[in-house]
Amino acid sequence: MSDANTPDTPKGDDARDQLVELAEQFYDQFADGSVPKMTLPTRSKSNIEYDDDSDVWVYGDRTSTRSANSVRGARKLLKSIYTIDFLAQQLDEDRSSTLRELYYLSESWDEEEAQFNDQSESDKLVEDLEIVSGVKREDFHMRPEESGAKVMGPLRIREQTNRGDREIHCQDDVGQGGYQIPNNPDTIEFLDCDAEFVMCVETGGMRDRLVENGFDDEYDCLVVHLGGQPARATRRLTKRLHDELGLPITVFTDGDPWSYRIFGSVSYGSIKSAHLSEYLATPEAQFVGIRPQDIVDYDLPTDPLSDSDVNALESELEDPRFQSDFWTEQIELQLDIDKKAEQQALASRGLDFVTDTYLPERLDEMNVI
């Protein structure tokens, strides 16, 4: 049973102040006769460092400068100013918008040079503003399209919404689909929790199998559907469940290099969001997914590794996130057997095998249950 826990979230006024301060820096540069510029960490793989103390990805010391001394740089700063103005107005009005909407909204801006060429450009600019302002996009009231990630299990929460607070039990008050994770999980207050651990599941099919078989009920487990590469909101909620409620985090994925990276993003963070690793990553997370050794031991149905799979596995042998005896042994085995397998391959031993045998044995070995 958890104590009530109220998240400490920045207020809209604080986020707006940070944006205005950033715009004022450009104005002051103009006033001083300087060419306006914005400095931020170089966002490339070569400038990503693995921090051994926190076990997460962080940006290194290299920086890049966006300067108005070139046409290209001036356009980027112009787009930054227009975006800052839009976000500040949005916060003034206590409204929100999606990243997709920002891209389309720019088409209505009076200065054509400020309009975005595609959504990837506007997405990256919002990330830049996060880095230089020290404020998360969620506090700008910016959200992605719905990720569809859900939670099912013995947890009672209070959620803040624009229609008032509401209390929800993530088993008793939801259907088979579970409780949908909001864009900003810091608006959730944990009230009561009878869960013993969290299981993050890569695929919807396996998530449904666990819920249908009552795995969440029998083992007092919170089943979190990752929906493939997990959204920031999913990773943030997972980290809060660990840090604030003390719940062990396990990650159940397919047995291929891309799924191992899903585990890596939950546990160690991702290169794209390295500026938020300490906010999103849970280094204590444990992998319970399909291992290459499982393919051998259970004689699972498989597919051959593609060339891109092989390249990814070889890259992971050099990846700081996978520098352990366990991962080295498993990746080398997979390269040797030249096979990969999905979670659903466990159904070859019966629909109940995963919940009656595979997961209980694996979790017991890991001292989770």
From TrEMBL:
<dbReference type="Pfam" id="PF04406">
    <property type="entry name" value="TP6A_N"/>
</dbReference>
<dbReference type="GO" id="GO:0006260">
    <property type="term" value="P:DNA replication"/>
</dbReference>
<dbReference type="GO" id="GO:0005524">
    <property type="term" value="F:ATP binding"/>
</dbReference>
<dbReference type="InterPro" id="IPR049333">
    <property type="entry name" value="Topo_VI_alpha"/>
</dbReference>
<feature type="binding site">
    <location>
        <position position="202"/>
    </location>
    <ligand>
        <name>Mg(2+)</name>
    </ligand>
</feature>
<comment type="similarity">
    <text>Belongs to the TOP6A family.</text>
</comment>
<feature type="binding site">
    <location>
        <position position="254"/>
    </location>
    <ligand>
        <name>Mg(2+)</name>
    </ligand>
</feature>
<dbReference type="GO" id="GO:0003918">
    <property type="term" value="F:DNA topoisomerase type II (double strand cut, ATP-hydrolyzing) activity"/>
</dbReference>
<feature type="active site" description="O-(5'-phospho-DNA)-tyrosine intermediate">
    <location>
        <position position="104"/>
    </location>
</feature>
<dbReference type="GO" id="GO:0005694">
    <property type="term" value="C:chromosome"/>
</dbReference>
<feature type="domain" description="Topoisomerase 6 subunit A/Spo11 TOPRIM">
    <location>
        <begin position="197"/>
        <end position="363"/>
    </location>
</feature>
<dbReference type="InterPro" id="IPR002815">
    <property type="entry name" value="Spo11/TopoVI_A"/>
</dbReference>
<keyword id="KW-0547">Nucleotide-binding</keyword>
<keyword id="KW-0460">Magnesium</keyword>
<keyword id="KW-0067">ATP-binding</keyword>
<comment type="subunit">
    <text>Homodimer. Heterotetramer of two Top6A and two Top6B chains.</text>
</comment>
<feature type="domain" description="Type II DNA topoisomerase VI subunit A all-beta">
    <location>
        <begin position="145"/>
        <end position="194"/>
    </location>
</feature>
<dbReference type="Pfam" id="PF21180">
    <property type="entry name" value="TOP6A-Spo11_Toprim"/>
</dbReference>
<dbReference type="InterPro" id="IPR013049">
    <property type="entry name" value="Spo11/TopoVI_A_N"/>
</dbReference>
<dbReference type="InterPro" id="IPR036078">
    <property type="entry name" value="Spo11/TopoVI_A_sf"/>
</dbReference>
<dbReference type="InterPro" id="IPR004085">
    <property type="entry name" value="TopoVI_A"/>
</dbReference>
<keyword id="KW-0238">DNA-binding</keyword>
<protein>
    <recommendedName>
        <fullName>Type 2 DNA topoisomerase 6 subunit A</fullName>
        <ecNumber>5.6.2.2</ecNumber>
    </recommendedName>
</protein>
<dbReference type="GO" id="GO:0003677">
    <property type="term" value="F:DNA binding"/>
</dbReference>
<keyword id="KW-0799">Topoisomerase</keyword>
<dbReference type="GO" id="GO:0006265">
    <property type="term" value="P:DNA topological change"/>
</dbReference>
<dbReference type="InterPro" id="IPR034136">
    <property type="entry name" value="TOPRIM_Topo6A/Spo11"/>
</dbReference>
<comment type="function">
    <text>Relaxes both positive and negative superturns and exhibits a strong decatenase activity.</text>
</comment>
<dbReference type="Pfam" id="PF20768">
    <property type="entry name" value="Topo_VI_alpha"/>
</dbReference>
<dbReference type="InterPro" id="IPR036388">
    <property type="entry name" value="WH-like_DNA-bd_sf"/>
</dbReference>
<feature type="domain" description="Spo11/DNA topoisomerase VI subunit A N-terminal">
    <location>
        <begin position="75"/>
        <end position="141"/>
    </location>
</feature>
<keyword id="KW-0413">Isomerase</keyword>
<dbReference type="GO" id="GO:0000287">
    <property type="term" value="F:magnesium ion binding"/>
</dbReference>
<keyword id="KW-0479">Metal-binding</keyword>
